[in-house]
Design brief:
The protein has two domains: 1-54 and 72-146, SIR2/SIRT2 'Small Domain'; 147-226, 3-Layer(aba) Sandwich (Rossmann fold). It contains nine helices and eight strands. It has helices spanning 16-19, 25-30, 32-51, 56-66, 81-84, 113-118, 149-161, 179-186, 213-222; strands at residues 73-75, 92-94, 97-104, 110-112, 136-140, 164-168, 190-194, 207-209. A three-stranded antiparallel sheet has the order 4-3-5. Helix 7 (149-161) packs parallel to helix 8. It binds zinc ion. The site of zinc ion (ZN) has 8 residues, from loops.
Length: 226
């Protein structure tokens, strides 16, 4: 979805997790050195996140929304590009959180990431909450951190109430995201998969397009009925 926008992929060959050993949540909480390391990495990625612009695939879903056809969007992406495309926040389920927000692990306060990164100085330690002194962390789900119950509920509700689910740009290998197309399909929704690689759900899907999203959109916009 976001590779066209210059956002690196996390899991594929050459992806972020091949370069960096992840910092787990318990390490982040207990070890100041790990916290600093985590923030240094986020700081390196920040310019890309700050300047990232929605690609055609993001704009395609915004177009569906504008024409009244999109009731929700479930994503594992943490780059905030769907929000930047203009999709309302309450329509979205950011299963893995978002890099555009900072949260306090103690009081739960959520602030805009721009303010913090603009004058982030790690010389004096990892940043702390101005309200309660708790540890601040980008509002993303770290390794070893549970997904939010309210997000899982919202995603299930969407899967159970849609009549078409489009699984776009996902290998459908990572849970729980991969379970929502199954729930939708078992509940009678039409399932369309658009992704370059084969997926475990190809056999049950109603439509399968093994294309890059950009190539798929080229084909789509060429069709006369669209
Ligand atoms: Zn706090």
């Amino acid at each position: 979805m976001s590779t066209e926008s210059g956002i690196p992929d996390y899991r594929s060959q050459g992806g972020i997790w091949q370069k960096f050993k992840p910092v787990y949540l318990d390490e982040f909480i207990s070890d100041e050195n790990k916290r600093i390391l985590y923030w240094q990495r986020k700081k390196e990625l920040w310019q890309g996140i700050k300047n990232g612009q929605p690609g055609r695939a993001h704009l395609f879903f915004k177009e569906l929304y504008d024409s009244g056809k999109l009731m929700g969007l479930i994503t594992q992406n943490i780059d905030g590009l769907h929000e930047k495309s203009g999709l309302p926040k309450d329509l979205m389920v950011n299963l893995h959180g978002t890099n555009l927000e900072i949260t306090c692990l103690r009081c739960g306060d959520i602030t805009d990431a721009h303010e913090l990164f603009d004058d982030l100085d790690l010389e004096h330690g990892a940043p702390l909450c101005v309200n309660c002194g708790g540890l601040l962390k980008p509002n993303t789900i770290s390794f070893g951190q549970q997904l939010r119950g309210e997000d899982l509920d919202k995603a299930s509700t969407l899967a159970l109430s849609c009549d078409l689910m489009i699984a776009a740009g996902s290998t459908l290998l990572v849970q729980p995201a991969a379970s929502y197309p199954v729930i939708a399909n078992e509940n009678g929704a039409v399932l369309a998969i658009i992704t370059l690689s084969e997926t475990p759900l190809d056999d049950v899907a109603d439509f399968v397009f093994h294309e890059k999203l950009s190539d798929f959109l080229d084909l789509l916009y060429e069709t006369p009925f669209f």
